[in-house]
Amino acid sequence: MENAEWHQVSSSNIAAVRYDVENQAVYVQFLNGSIYAYKGVPEYEFEHLRTAPSVGSYLNRNFKNVYPYERA
Predict the structure, then answer these.
(1) What is the C-alpha to C-alpha distance for residues 40 and 32, in angstroms, rounded to an integer?
(2) What tens-digit pLDDT sequence spans the chain (72 residues)?
(3) Which of 1, 20, 30, 71 is least buried, going by the fewest C-beta atoms within 10 A?
(4) 20 CB contacts (<8 Å, ≥6 apart)?
């Protein structure tokens, strides 16, 4: 995962996101510094998140209660 780069996003709650291809995991860094890992996420879903008009809304709508997650 060391080679996965963070993508800064414009959000009132999220600072950056990154994708770990090998483990199909999306990492979300919130502005408060916490990082959460969402598991089993297809790459296209990460791209949709990264480019969404509202990253926070997309995360809430399409990730929470869909993919298992844990605090990283």
Answers:
(1) 25
(2) 456 799 999 999 999 999 999 999 999 999 999 999 999 999 999 999 999 999 999 999 999 999 999 999
(3) 71
(4) 1, 4, 26, 27
Question: 61 is written with which tokens?
Answer: 């709508």
Copy the structure tokens of residue 48.
């949709």
**Helix H or strand E segment including 49:** helix 43-51
Q: What value, to the nearest 5°, has the Cα angle with vertex 34 and ends 47 and 7?
A: 30
Strand ranges for 3-62 from DSSP E? 7-8, 14-20, 25-30, 35-39
CB burial of residue 14 (10 Å; 0-12, 13-18, 19+)? buried
